[in-house]
Design brief:
It is a single chain. By secondary structure, the protein is α+β, with helices and mostly antiparallel strands. The protein is built from one helix and seven strands; from the N terminus they run αβββββββ. It folds into two domains: 85 residues; 54 residues, no CATH class. Helices cover 59% and strands 24% of the residues. Strand 5 and strand 6 form a beta hairpin.
Length: 143
Amino acid sequence: MKNKFINLLLEERTVAVKLGVFILLVFLCLSLNSTVSAKKKEAMKLKDDKAVAISLENQLQELNKKLKLFEEMGKVAGSLQVKANLSLKGIIIKDGKAAALINNDIYQQNDLIAGCIITSITTNTITLEDPATGEESKIQLPE
């Protein structure tokens, strides 16, 4: 009887140990599942963040293109402003030397007017160059 009692105790102890191991394994599985879920959420967030970053990069590239376009438009507008303030009234060419009557003043090649250099004078046009940008613009005699 004593042996039976010891055997029963040992069986109960074995069952208790097995039950304890089983509970521990369940706890570990739940813990791992929770960790995996958290990692999946983190991965999804990173994926979403990457998509947002790519979208922002594309938007930045589009804005840079628009900025360059506006800069170009500003250069053209600046060129038009120079032309708008200058009135070419006449050109005289004598003995290979040219002069232009602009806004009631006489100018020759390499003279400075409105921040631009007169680079050439022909029979009906003058060419101006903005020394800061190298941009050229032409003004023609009115017809």
